[in-house]
Amino acid sequence: MARKPAVAEVFFALGHGTRLAIVRRLGVGGALSATTLSRGAKVTRQAIVKHLQVLEGAGLVTSERLGKHVLYALVPARLAAPRAFLDGLAAGWDRAVDKRSPRGAARGTAAP
Amino acid sequence: MARKPAVAEVFFALGHGTRLAIVRRLGVGGALSATTLSRGAKVTRQAIVKHLQVLEGAGLVTSERLGKHVLYALVPARLAAPRAFLDGLAAGWDRAVDKRSPRGAARGTAAP
DNA sequence: GCCATGCGCAACCTCCTGGTTGCACAGTTG
DNA sequence: CAACTGTGCAACCAGGAGGTTGCGCATGGC
Question: Measured between CA atoms, how close is B40 to chain A, in angstroms?
Answer without folding.
Answer: 14
